[in-house]
Design brief:
Keywords: Membrane, Transmembrane, Transmembrane helix. 39% of the residues lie in helices and 21% in strands. The protein has 175 residues and is an alpha+beta fold. The protein has two domains: 106 residues, no CATH class; 61 residues, Nucleic acid-binding proteins (OB fold (Dihydrolipoamide Acetyltransferase, E2P), Beta Barrel). Helix 2 runs antiparallel to helix 3. The chain is rod-shaped, with a radius of gyration of 27 Å.
């Protein structure tokens, strides 16, 4: 049992040091909501929380074994409880302090469906025109084609229905 606790402690400690110096945003478990794959918030199963739990579980179990606690089951339960508690504290810190101020881009920041824009090059029949949209304060121009194959004049306001290979399928927008 001492070997299990020692291995958990040292593996957790080494991985914590590696994640601290090299980053560890690559591992986070998210539930699928069935819709868009945006982040609704941090998961308890983030790498920092898991490593904190593993390290404390191993350290607490090793310490309790060393002080001569006789019951292996009691040691295991106390170590698991301590690991979960510290993992929960790390999650709270992550959710309330770090994630709250995380302004990194999300997939939804790039979703163009429903975006309003203005044609700067007219769409002639089944041809392709060009439209300009404003996303996050920046003007972007993209190719556009009419949903029903009708012509749409330059300057008309259009709404993006969907994107296909970099070309927006649009419909004329009326107030």
């Amino acid at each position: 049992m001492m070997t299990l606790f020692a291995v958990c402690f040292f593996v957790g400690l080494v991985l914590t040091v590696l994640v601290t110096f090299f980053g560890g945003d690559f591992f986070e478990v998210h539930g699928d909501t069935g819709g868009a794959h945006g982040h609704g918030g941090p998961s308890f199963f983030n790498l920092s929380s898991l490593l904190a739990s593993l390290t404390v579980f191993g350290g607490m179990g090793y310490m309790l074994s060393e002080v001569g606690m006789a019951s292996s089951l009691l040691i295991l339960l106390i170590a698991a409880g301590a690991g979960l508690f510290v993992g929960w504290l790390f999650f709270l810190f992550y959710a309330k302090v770090i994630y709250k101020h995380d302004d990194s881009m999300k997939e939804s920041d790039f979703a163009l469906n429903g975006q309003l824009g203005k044609l700067i090059v007219p769409i002639n029949g089944k041809g392709i025109g060009e439209m300009v949209i404003v996303m996050q304060g920046t003007k972007r121009s993209i190719s556009a084609r009419s949903e029903l194959g009708e012509s749409i004049a330059k300057g008309a306001r259009v709404v993006i229905l969907h994107m296909d290979k970099g070309v927006a399928t649009v419909s004329q927008f009326s107030d």
